[in-house]
Amino acid sequence: xxxxxxxxxxxxxxxxxxxxxxxxxxxxxxxxxxxxxxxxxxxxxxxxxxxxxxxxxxxxxxxxxxxxxxxxxxxxxxxxxxxxxxxxxxxxxxxxxxxxxxxxxxxxxxxxxxxxxxxxxxxxxxxxxxxxxxxxxxxxxxxxxxxxxxxxxxxxxxxxxxxxxxxxxxxxxxxxxxxxxxxxxxxxxxxxxxxxxxxxxxxxxxxxxxxxxxxxxxxxxxxxxxxxxxxxxxxxxxxxxxxxxxxxxxxxxxxxxxxxxxxxxxxxxxxxxxxxxxxxxxxxxxxxxxxxxxxxxxxxxxxxxxxxxxxxxxxxxxxxxxxxxxxxxxxxxxxxxxxxxxxxxxxxxxxxxxxxxxxxxxxxxxxxxxxxxxxxxxxxxxxxxxxxxxxxxxxxxxxxxxxxxxxxxxxxxxxxxxxxxxxxxxxxxxxxxxxxxxxxxxxxxxxxxxxxxxxxxxxxxxxxxxxxxxxxxxxxxxxxxxxxxxxxxxxxxxxxxxxxxxxxxxxxxxxxxxxxxxxx
Length: 520
Known about the structure:
- This protein has 16 helices and 17 strands.
- Strand 16, helix 15 and strand 17 (498-501) form a beta-alpha-beta unit.
- Helix 8 packs parallel to helix 9 (266-282).
- The protein is α/β, with parallel strands linked by helices.
């Protein structure tokens, strides 16, 4: 006799009748209705059946007179929270039974069927019980998924705390050193560069989180245009080069002779391949080998990123792209991360009409990530990259700049930066102070406002500035940590010309003010 699958066991009806003849008859009726059943010779067998799995129990009233029926009561009382197993009792015809009354009191989910019973009535009652049981199974699976998601979230928050502490430690050390000793500019430069690298790392972590949030809610916008994949992969390599060189990896690239062009967002595609290179570098022991191959396969561009690193277990090949999943068995080899890089890869590739697949012969056998994107044509249609932003404050932009932020360090630092570039910043730490500055001095042509300030927030300050006739033509920029779509809509509705996220990307600010960047 072949073994039953778990699904079949969970759908079966456990029978406990008084005679073997009754059991045979009940089993035959259920089989004709295509309902699986299992006959239990006593209550011990019935309880064992419950522990293995069952869709419902069908009992004869006479069986409940057995003292061993208490074992059934105990088993049903110990069910998990999601479970409320249906119990169907075939009752004798006639007056109310004390046995039935006691059963209804002790057993929660009881349906009484009076004999003699029509076959159709019995079958319909059994099927209704199974439908109710299936809803319980759905609740069980939902609770299991929620527990797993909660566990992943807990692990992610612990990882996030760890990843944010990592860059904070060298930054704190560098600041302590700079405070304790007056370094010459050339000596201090290495500490400034160190802090800059660590800040960049923290910004990337936060940006990745924001990207995942936008993608999962369908709020991301792609700037689609013809893109040469070889150029995209080279840009990705430049982004990942510090990670690759830091681990002393050997990189082999085969980008082919003919340019392959896809329709996509060059920035997002660069992000895809940089994440794949970073992932390969992270899960490959120092001194490993990583290769990137670009080729055409009919009307599809295929990019393979291979490594000879830790590899993947078969059960990880699909789940590796899920949110917050990391390869725990190789965590010692990995240099941190939030477990969202590959989620971004999959989401962005699919937004481009493509697909991504992970392949590995097993743990310790390396891994290959294969990205497929639809081709569109020749490289002649690719638009040239925009020129890099200039370092100084452009003469065409307003010179007097109002900076308002309740974080004094942030406001002063931005003011100093704008001053160093050639602008004339005026710094205020509150909405009220900003209005006083405007009243006492030359009118600004540009105002960079924080939104979440105590007292008068950025929205109210923007409205006050817009209402001032002397400030006609003032350009308002919201500089904030709030970057969700709803925040952008509120900021645009409040009269801001541009919306930029903290920390300020100066090139993005200048591009926006020149009209080449996104207004919000």
